[in-house]
Design brief:
Elements: E1 3-7, H1 12-23, E2 27-32, H2 39-42, E3 51-55, E4 68-71, H3 78-83, H4 85-106, E5 109-112, E6 114-115, H5 142-162, E7 166-167, E8 169-171, E9 174-175, H6 186-195, E10 200-203, E11 209-211, E12 213-214, H7 215-227, E13 235-237, E14 242-244, H8 245-255, E15 262-265, H9 280-286, H10 294-307, H11 316-322
Parallel strand pairs: 1-2, 1-4, 2-3, 4-5, 5-7, 6-8, 8-13, 9-12, 10-15
Antiparallel strand pairs: 11-14
The structure holds uridine-5'-diphosphate (UDP).
Uridine-5'-diphosphate binds near residues 186, 202 and 208.
C-alpha cells in the first residue's frame, strides 16, 4: 500500500484514477482547484478514510510525503484550455515543475500526463512515439500543445539532472462516464445533443479522424506504466481504432435512437486532421491492450449521462461554434 498524490484528481481522468487506486488499497490524495474538475466527480470516494480532496492550485507549491505522483492537472478540452491560454501554459509548465520538485524532495516516482497533442497536426500517420510532431507554436492550440511539450522537456531534464524517477504517457482521446458535459469535447457534445434532441454539431465536413479509448482501458495503461520497473520513455496510450467525426456522430445517433440532425459548423483553427496512436511499445512493454469496444463504451457513457439527466441543457460546443 502506498500514499499517492493525483493532481487534477477531481477531473474526468483523475477521478477514475483515484477510484482505481483506492480499489487497490492505496491512500490517495486528490489535489484540484476545481476549475475544470468538480467535487461531484469524487463525492462517492470521500466516504473512504483513505481518500482526501485538497483544493489547491498546482501553480503554487505544495508538499505531501508521497511515493507516487500522477500529475494530471490541466484543462484538457480545446474550449477550456483556450479560455485562459496563458494560464494553460503556466499550469503545464509551473505545475509540472512543482510536481517534479515534490518528486525530487520525497524520492517519489512522477508520472506526467502528456498528450497526443504533442504531435500537433501530424504529417506522419499513425503516430509512433519517435515522431517529433508538427505543432504550430503561434496557433490557438499552442498554449496546450507547447505547454505539454515543455512539460515533457522538464520531465526529461529532471530525470537527467536530478535523477527523478519519471514516467511519460502520451494520452490519446479518451471518453467515458464523468466527462464534463459542458467542456465542449466531441463525445460529450454529441451525447448531450442527441439526448436533448438538438442537432449534432459536426465541425468541418466531419472527415477528420480520432481514435477513442474507453476510460477504464486508459487508466489501466497509466497504472501499468507507473508501476513498470523502469522508465521506458514516452509512451502512447490509447485505442488505435480510428474513425471519422462524422462516423462518430452517426454511431451516437444510432445508439441513442435520436432523431437529431447533423449540422455542419466551421472547423476550428488548427484542428488536427487525423490522429491514431501506434501502441506497439505499450503492448510489448506493459502488456497494455484496450479491451472495451467503442459501441460498448459509448453505451455505458450514454447510460451514465442519461442517469444524470444530462441533455436537458445545451452542450457548450453548440454555443461556442455559433459564437
Ligand atoms: N468536434 C466536432 N463537434 C463538436 C466538438 C468537436 O465535430 O461538437 C470535432 C473537433 O473539431 C475535432 C474532434 O471533434 O476534430 C475532436 O474534438 P475534441 O475537442 O473532442 O478533441 P481534440 O482531439 O480536437 O483535442
Amino acid at each position: 500500500m502506498m500514499r499517492i498524490l493525483v493532481t487534477g484528481g477531481a477531473g474526468f481522468l483523475g477521478s477514475h484514477l483515484c477510484e482505481r487506486l483506492l480499489h487497490e488499497g492505496h491512500e490517495v490524495i486528490a489535489l484540484d482547484d476545481l476549475s475544470t474538475g468538480s467535487r461531484a466527480n469524487v463525492a462517492h470516494l470521500l466516504r473512504s478514510r483513505r481518500f482526501s480532496l485538497v483544493e489547491h492550485d498546482v501553480t503554487n507549491p505544495y508538499d505531501f510525503a508521497v511515493q507516487r505522483i500522477y500529475n494530471l492537472a490541466s484543462p484538457a478540452s480545446p474550449p477550456q484550455y483556450q479560455r485562459d491560454p496563458v494560464r494553460t501554459t503556466m499550469i503545464n509548465v509551473i505545475g509540472t515543475r512543482n510536481a517534479l520538485d515534490l518528486g525530487r524532495r520525497h524520492r517519489a516516482r512522477v508520472l506526467q500526463a502528456s498528450t497526443s497533442e504533442v504531435y500537433g497536426d501530424p504529417e506522419v500517420h499513425p503516430q509512433p512515439e519517435s515522431y517529433r510532431g508538427s505543432v504550430d507554436s503561434t496557433g490557438l492550440r499552442a498554449c496546450y500543445d507547447e505547454g505539454k511539450r515543455c512539460a515533457e522537456s522538464l520531465v526529461m531534464d529532471y530525470k537527467r539532472k536530478c535523477f527523478v524517477d519519471v514516467r511519460l504517457p502520451r494520452i490519446f482521446n479518451t471518453y467515458g462516464p464523468r466527462m464534463d458535459p459542458e467542456d465542449g469535447r466531441v463525445v460529450s457534445n454529441f451525447i448531450v445533443q442527441a439526448l436533448g434532441g438538438e442537432d449534432l454539431t459536426v465541425y468541418g465536413d466531419g472527415s477528420q479522424t480520432r481514435s477513442f479509448c474507453y476510460v477504464d482501458d486508459l487508466i489501466d495503461g497509466l497504472v501499468r506504466l507507473m508501476e513498470h520497473a523502469e522508465d521506458p520513455g514516452p509512451m502512447n496510450l490509447g485505442n488505435p481504432a480510428e474513425m471519422t467525426v462524422l462516423e462518430l456522430a452517426e454511431e451516437i445517433r444510432k445508439l441513442t435512437k435520436s432523431q437529431s440532425q447533423i449540422l455542419f459548423h466551421p472547423l476550428p483553427e488548427g484542428d488536427p486532421k487525423q490522429r491514431r496512436p501506434v501502441i506497439d511499445k505499450a503492448r510489448a512493454t506493459l502488456g497494455f491492450e484496450p479491451r472495451v469496444p467503442l459501441q460498448k463504451g459509448l453505451r455505458r457513457t450514454i447510460e451514465s449521462f442519461a442517469a444524470h439527466a444530462v441533455g436537458k441543457r445545451p452542450a457548450r460546443g453548440s454555443r461556442l461554434a455559433t459564437a
